[in-house]
Structures are given as C-alpha cells and as structure tokens.
Amino acid sequence: MANILTIEVGSTEIRVAEMKEEKKSSSIRRCFRFAVPQGLVEDGTIRDAQTLGEQLKNELLSRKISARKVRFIVASSRIASREVRIPFIKKNRIQDLLETNAADYFPINPLEYSISYRIIDIEEGGEGKEKEKKYHLMVYACPKEVAESYNQLAEASGLIIDCLAHIGDSIYMAVRKAFIQGTHMLVKIEEDAMLVSVIRDGELRMQRNINYGINGAIETVQMFPVFGEHFDYEEALSLMMKKNCVRRTLNPNSVIAEPEDETEEMKEARTEVAQSLRYLVGNISRIMDYYLARNPGNGFDTIQCCGIGAAVLGMTKLLSHELAQKVTPLQPIEGHKFAKSDEIDNAESIYIALFGVDATSANLMEKVKKTRKKRDGEDIRGAVVVFVIGAAASIILVFFSCGSHLYHAQRQKRLNTEITKNESAETIYNEYKDMKERYSQYEQMYGYTNTPNESLVSFLEELEQKMPSTLVIEDFNSTGIGISFTVEVSNKKEAANTLMQLRKFESLTSVTTTGTAEDESGIITMSVTANYAQPAAMASTEQQ
C-alpha cells in the first residue's frame, strides 16, 4: 500500500508523519514538526494558505518525502460535535437524515456547515420479538470556511487532500483499544489549547476543549534570568523538555523540598512557572468533578497526559499533586509503530493523534464533495419534470389571482377607513415613545452615579508605600472586581521582582501576568491583572 501523509495543524506548530497503513496496525515511517509563523493559523482556520503551503512543501522536499496523498487533522472551537442516536436505516441514508435535522442537533445555519459523522456502535433495545435497533453516532458540524481553507492549503503545497479529520475523533480512535476496560482520562496539552477525554470501557463518554495551554509557562521561563538569558520562545520550550522548570505544587508557601530547588532564586522562579499553570490545572479538576458528580462511584482507573505538554518535565508531578491522583505520560499503545523518527523521545505522546485517522474517519470535507457530485449529476429528465410542474402551477395561479385581487381591494378599502378613524392614536403613541426614551436616558444617567472603585484607594496607598518611585505605569484600568495595568521595568529580573512584590499586597489577590515584551533598548513591558481582596458590591443599575 502506498504511503500517505497525516498532518496535525496547530496554531503554533505543524506535525507531519509519513504513514504506512497495515491491516491490523499502522506505522510512522518518518515524522517531524516545525513552527508556524504567528497569524497563519487561527483557531484551526488557515488564514494564509499560500505562505503556509510553500513552507510545508519546502519541509517535505528537504526530507525527500514523495507521498502526495494527505489527511489533515484540525483542532478548532468552531467545529461542533454531539452524540446522536437515530433509527437503524440504510447507511446510504444516514448522511441525508443528519443534514435534514442538523438544525435540531446544533444551533447553526445548515447552509454554512458541512455535516459528517462516525458510527460509534449499533444499540439494541425494546421488547418483544422484534428489537428496535439504533445507530449511536458522533456527529460533527464544520464551517465550510474552515474546510475550504484546507483545500487551499493542500493545493498550495502540491498535495491531494483525502480527509479532514477532527482532533477529538482522531485522539479517541488512536487510544480506544488501550482503554477497552475501566474508566480513563486522557489530557492532551498543547501550547494554546487542551483536550480532555473520558473513555469508559472503550466508549467516549465525555470530551471537552479548553482554550488554555502552556504558553503562559513558557513566557514565564523566558522572564526569569535564572533559567537563562535571552531565550526565544522555542528555546524556552526546549529547555522545559530537558530541565524541570515546574514546581510540583501551586502553593507558594509549601515547604516541599525538591532537588531542582538549587537556590532560593530558582525555587521562586519554579514556583512562578507553576502558578502560570493554575488555570490549566483548575479546568482539569473541574472536568473531573463534573464527571464524578454525574457518575457517582465510578472513579478514574488512570489519568494519562499527551501532547507537547506531556513532554514538559515536572508537568505530570504537578498534576498528580494537585489532582490527588497519579498522572503519567501516555503509555505506548499496541499496534502503533515508529519505523523511523527525527525525534525518538516522547514521540508516542506528541504524535498520538496521527494514529487515529484512517479511511473510516469522520470526513469534514464529505458534504462539500457530495454537493459537487449532485450538481454534476443533474440531467435533462429532471429539467423536464420541473418545467411540467411549473407550467401546471402557473395555470392554476392565473385562476386564483383574479379572485385574490378582488378580495384584497375590498380589504384595503376597509383598512383605509379604520386608519382615518384612529389617526389621533398615532399622536398619543408618539408621545409615549418620546417619554419612554427620556426615561431610559435618565435611568442610564443614574446608573453612572454608581462607582465600582471603592477598593481602588487601598490599592493606590499600598502601591505608594511598597513600590519604588521609579516604577512606570503606562495603562491602568479598574473595575468593581479588580484592576489591570501595564508597567515598564529596566530588565527581566526587575519584572520578576515586581510581580512577586505585587503578590504580597494585602489589597490584591490572584495577581497574574498575561505576557511581557522587550524593546530594542532592553526595557521590559509587563501586563498585570489582579482581583481586589474585598471587591465592592455593584448596584443592579450597573448593567443598564
């Protein structure tokens, strides 16, 4: 069988594998990954197919990969999925049934989406001699704009697209055989997103996309000089895969001693990196609690981690400590083979999704192709039928139109009489509208008299007492809940010290940074957000 390319497209990197399919297993002959320039891929949609296609073509040529047939894997929050059960009908009618009822499954305009599905299993139920069978399906709705962008990418890179698969479906199919018994959670952590799957006895019971990854941790490593000077993004990520930069606890006051805490400065830096992962850990914990609440007495037999986040040293220790259950990297799965790889370490974890795409995958391109096929298959007999029906309908309409005209003429005459009699009501209605509008304006003006900044004074007094006079604040915004502002400092070390000092403010809680930037002169600009320790209660008029 000829080799085929399987490509997972992310917003920060692309993973490529040259696959060889076999009857009972599949293998990766060669695999590699490369960074994607910022802005080319946005939430799964290819924004510049020509530029990205040229880059992909050059990467394939440099490795002398000749395969031209490709299967893409897309991760996008715009792609909706839902479990559906339908009557046991002929397979060639399933697609038409799903497209007809698409608006019942998803809050979408069916004309703007392509519908695809995968058969999970066939269920039997009912009583009596004839048991009612049903299809258990996972149905996907993909915006045609997203699907078309991958057509353009394939064309720009000189490839022939065979399938566009969803990341959730690919992950599930890749690991299903390994989780055939028991309840298991698999967390796929990437740089800007996370996919959490719960699989019980081989069936997908829950899957959630979270738009949060390890980007914040990578930027925190860049910010602390104790890890190294002048790291770019890729160098910082590479360091995290070789050196443990993450403390195993989110508690900054923990007395846990770790070998990596060589100095007090290193301990503080590793604590900050762990703090940047707080939202990631919190989202996993909430998904666990939600599943266990709906399935009491059914705990997780294993929690495993995959994706680029699983390759970060210390990640599984942090998750194990905070989730109170052992978390391990994804174990090798029987049937998955790496014949040759540019990167041997963590290959199974990083490239796992590429094993889950095959000829039976839910193809997000299917509806586009099917529509074109129907359009090409129209013939003259259909046109004749339409003409005959149209001619008959026009004759009938001629007879009815005369009677309809007389009826509407009489009705218009009656309505004109009523309008003349009730002209005075229009003046009253206009006065009512004018008074209602004025009332809304006065009510809105009254709402502005409420101030959300009762806690602001305490923060400013503490800022004046504890921070140096050389601190420069550029932008500042305050609400009834918290504040956000941008500061300028002379170097990364001062930025780290400023952040740690702000965390000690009695007037603030949850102090975090959303990123730093360095100009040509070495000045560091850091954005900070925080909540007030005692946020003021807002009046109901604030929302008006």
Automatic annotation (TrEMBL):
Stored Gene3D superfamilies: 3.30.1490.300, 3.30.420.40
Q: Which UniProt keywords apply?
A: Membrane, Transmembrane, Transmembrane helix
Q: Where are the transmembrane segments?
A: 382-407
Record bears the keyword Transmembrane: yes
Q: Where does the source fall among the domains of life?
A: Bacteria
Q: Which InterPro entries match?
A: FtsA/MreB, PilM
What PANTHER family does its record include? CELL DIVISION PROTEIN FTSA-RELATED, ETHANOLAMINE UTILIZATION PROTEIN EUTJ
What protein does this entry describe?
Pilus assembly protein PilN
Q: Which organism is it from?
A: Anaerobutyricum hallii
